[in-house]
Write a structure and sequence with these properties.
By secondary structure, the chain is α+β, with helices and mostly antiparallel strands. Helices cover 18% and strands 44% of the residues.
Amino acid sequence: MRFTKMNGAGNDFIILNNLEERLPRDRFPAIARLLCHRHLSIGADGLMVVDTPTEGGDYRMLFYNSDGSMGEMCGNGARCICRYGYEHGLAGERQTVETTAGIVTGERIDRRMYRIRLNDPTTVRLDGAVEVDGTTYPCAYVELGNPGIPHAVVPYPNLREADENALRELGRSIRWHKDFPKGANVNFYELIGPDHIFERTFERGVEDFTYACGTGTGSVVTVLTLRDQVSGKNVQADMAGGRLVVDAERVLSHIASLYLTGPTNIVCEGFVTDEDLQL
């Protein structure tokens, strides 16, 4: 079984081309759990599968978190898979990718930079709050696409100097908070300049911080644009894995389109020889 490993701003993925492998779909959760384990196998935040389109797209993208749960979509993953699609002749420089959360369009900027239109925000609550251990935290909520990718958006002063373990425990508590019946990715952010944020995301399905989160960054910029705290144009987001750029087109009180731009990296390609893998 061939694989490609890629990352987008440090958010890393294993890609399998099921147009060639023709594996049964019910095997992918177990494959994701095995191959994404960083100590026992290749290691990654998630598994992405290129599969047959059903809605007129160039191909379909199936996304599985490292714990084997199926995700609706992944922004950095979609940027990576657009590069994969272009370089493997599945699509041109502009392409249409079918995801569980809806259609995503991608565009090649240059060899390594790709831009996608994220799924549109379908749910936005700007003025919420959550209580954790007696402390109340302001917490907006955004879902992208349908079914929606859930994101909690939480301001956190001095985020870059935050205690790692304390922040992880807070992220875990909010991720499982009763106000989010299907869970939520938790995006902590700090405004560090005009149209410039620093962000850390505790991702459900990984159950830890990832180096970057594309849909999370889009959700943070959605909230800040609607609050008039950023312009929505060329908003820069710095994370552990690098920098992403988001453009949010605001029409009155909603975001009409949301774009994510950032780098991709092909880490390695080869054959899976994991002897614990049972297909």
